[in-house]
Design a protein that fits this description.
- With 334 residues, this protein is of the alpha/beta class.
- The protein folds into two domains: 180 residues, Vaccinia Virus protein VP39 (Rossmann fold, 3-Layer(aba) Sandwich); 135 residues, no CATH class.
- The two termini are 38 Å apart.
- About 3% of the residues have low confidence.
Length: 334
């Protein structure tokens, strides 16, 4: 997925820096926690290296993807995927609330793709409730559905708005595809507030990648959240936002950010803590250094990288095509 804050392009930088600071190498089998997991690219990369991965995100669609990438070991067979892709479309929740043909006033997917998404989502739930597929296959299919349908969305990368006219990629016929299966130890995935979870987990390396600004993920990916849950929520406004008060991150507010972050660092039972944060975030480098230095030896590494694609599509003042990623490191002593 083309995801806000994705660290896919920074994986080499993250792995190299963590290895340099900790001395851990691929195959050492340490416990790695990725507690703002997003689409799970960082955690999955450490699972591949033989680590036991603890993953968490407050968004349910992220939990679904990570359940497959971090805990999954099975995958659905080709005949089941073919069966799902051959289903006739259904006028379900997606079509009725996100497609123009239903007269809902929203244009997130073509009518055909919305109906196909509904049919597949309903069938996945039916198969699971009838014990015809395992929990692992259920999450494999759901993760594949979320990742696949996103490629056909009629948006400028995020779901804060839809486009007036159907763009070329959204016109293609939706097809369910599975995510690649990740080899490695079976980890543990949570769907909790990180500041509550931190008291329950421990390990060797804690990697933190919180939101950098005031844009809430629950608003930017609300459609995927609803497809993942398929819970028929009451939608509001032009864009069809669901009630997400319980999923709003305190890391998106200057008022609560510093206290939340310090609470997290203070309660973390990990020797090594790494924080990804860029030079345009709500919390500046000096504030981060001040908080982390209270708890041990602090270092900081930097890497330039290309700005998230959707920024170029939004009517905002953008200073340049690149931004600087900081990887703040703490060797915790107390």
């Amino acid at each position: 997925m083309n995801y806000i804050g994705s660290k896919y392009s920074l994986l080499d930088f993250i792995h190299k820096t963590i290895s340099e600071v900790t001395g851990y190498a691929s195959g050492d089998g340490f416990i790695f926690a990725d507690l703002f997991a997003g689409t799970g690219v960082v955690g999955a990369s450490y699972r591949k290296e033989g680590c036991y991965v603890i993953s968490n995100d407050i968004q349910y669609y992220s939990y679904v993807i990570n359940k497959y990438c971090i805990e999954g070991s099975e995958n659905a067979n080709a005949s089941l995927i073919n069966e799902l892709n051959s289903l006739s479309g259904t006028e379900g929740f997606v079509y009725k609330n996100y497609c123009a043909g239903s007269n809902c006033g929203r244009n997130y997917f073509t009518d055909e793709n919305g109906k196909r998404c509904d049919a597949i989502r309903i069938k996945i739930e039916e198969l699971y409730n009838q014990n015809k597929i395992s929990e692992e296959i259920y999450f494999a299919l759901l993760a594949g559905l979320i990742n696949s349908i996103d490629k056909y969305a009629n948006t400028a990368s995020v779901y804060g708005a839809f486009l007036k006219h159907i763009k070329k990629s959204a016109q293609k016929q939706f097809k369910l595809e599975l995510l690649p299966r990740i080899e490695g130890p079976k980890g543990k995935v949570y769907n909790e507030d990180i500041n509550e979870l931190i008291a329950k987990v421990h390990g060797d390396v804690l990697y933190l990648d919180p939101p950098y600004n005031s844009r809430q993920y629950c608003a930017n990916y609300h459609v995927l959240e609803t497809i993942a849950r398929y819970d028929n929520p009451v939608l509001k406004g032009k864009t069809g936002l669901r009630d997400s008060n319980g999923q709003k991150s305190k890391y998106c507010s200057k008022r609560t950010l510093a206290s939340e972050f310090e609470n997290l660092i203070a309660n973390a039972k990990f020797k090594y803590i790494f924080l990804s944060y860029n030079n345009e975030g709500l919390m500046d480098i000096d504030a981060i250094k001040k908080i982390m230095s209270k708890y041990g030896a602090y270092k900081c590494f930097t890497q330039s990288y290309k700005r998230f694609k959707a920024d170029k599509d939004e009517n905002r003042n953008i200073s340049g095509s690149e931004t600087v990623e900081y990887l703040h490191c703490l060797i915790k002593e107390r």
